[in-house]
Amino acid sequence: MVTIKDVAKITGVAPSTVSRVIADNPRISMDTKEKVRKAMKELGYHPNVNARNLAVKSTKAIGVVLPSSADKALQNPFFPEILRGIGSVTHGMEYSMTLSSGITEDEIFDEVQRMVYGSYVDGIILLYSRLNDRVMNFLREKDFPYVIVGKPHEHAHTITHVDNDNYIAGKEITNHLIEMGHEKIAFIGGSKDLFVTMDREAGYEAAIKEASLINNEDYKIHTEFLKSGGREAVETLLGLSAPPTGLVISDDLMSLGVLSMLEESGYSVPRDFSLVSFNNVYLSEITSPALTTVDIHIHDLGAQSAKALIEKTVNKTESPKRITVPHEIVYRNSVSRREAH
Fold first, then answer.
1. Staple 224 to which of 99, 229, 262, 293, CB 3.0 to 4.6 Å?
2. Do 221 and 186 contact (CB within 8 A), yes or no?
3. What is the pTM of this model?
């Protein structure tokens, strides 16, 4: 096992100087730093991160909490992509990332408590925002640095959060269907207690209202952000006496379920149904037909949340901020014009 003393011996400096180089002390000259770092590399010396962190009270790690069981969430390409965004920042700043892997809400909550009480991480990113969330309430109570991807339910001005304007995005994408002649438009969303669903649905409703179309409660379906969720939604909508012709689906993975279910039922997109979606994950481009969808710049959401969190952990007095990541509609082949009947 190579120690600081070995590095000191080979470079001819005092062990305390080696320690200062490891801590990147500005008092040590660049020449000495280069000489010591070169020796550390040659000897294969790695500083004991935990011992060093006890001294500087930082773990150089951040925790990331998924909205539900990791195995379910990670089936949705949104999450690997946002983790890639977070990783692009943590890697550059030499931070590591700890991912919650609990399955039930209780397990996730226990895991977050361990992260906080065990000082495993400097701060936490929540990849969701929902009503009365135990994890968020706990982090607030403990005054532990955290950032939300999404819009907080309350205390929004006191919580740093990174989000898109999902209300405007919902309105714009619904308007696209209206402009293409659709009058019967359904909304298929995720769980009703997730803010992202509420905002996209509110935008959809605003577009329907402004176009003086009927706001039909039967046209609003809430299900899981998974392919199976999309399939269930289609069964319900096809069973209606006046099925919709346009579908606003709040997640690309659900859209895949909708597409396959429609196909199995003998319908074609966009001939029989026009379909618009959200997120622009890589799958939306390779499906047949390719999806018209809202690109919410997932990678950027991740990168911005990691930057904001690290700033908070370094400077505890950093004031809370709202970061809005822009969105744009990507027009592909899942919408056709509906001629007036």
1. 229
2. yes
3. 0.81
What is the distance between the alpha carbons of residues 168 and 292, in angstroms, rounded to a whole number?
A: 16
Tens of pLDDT, residues 213-237 = 999 999 999 987 676 777 888 989 9
Query: Would the pLDDT of 53 be above 70?
Result: no
Residue 239: exposure state from Cβ atoms within 10 A (0-12, 13-18, ≥19): exposed
**Cα–Cα distance measured from residue 193 to residue 218, given in angstroms and rounded to the nearest whole number:** 19
Of 267, 232, 266, nearest to 249 by C-alpha is 232
Total residues found in the chain within this entry? 341
Res 54 pLDDT > 70: no
Residue 130 exposed, middle or buried by CB count within 10 Å (0-12, 13-18, 19+): buried
Q: What is the largest CA-CA distance in the chain?
A: 89
Q: Report the C-alpha gap between 106 and 126 in whole angstroms.
A: 16
Nearest to 244 by CA among 224, 284, 215, 266: 215
Q: Tokens for 24? A: 């990147």
- CB hemisphere CA count around 261 (13 angstroms): 20
Query: What is the DSSP secondary-structure string of 79-123?
Result: HHHHHHHHHHHHHHTT-EEEE---SSHHHHHHHHHHHHHTT--SE
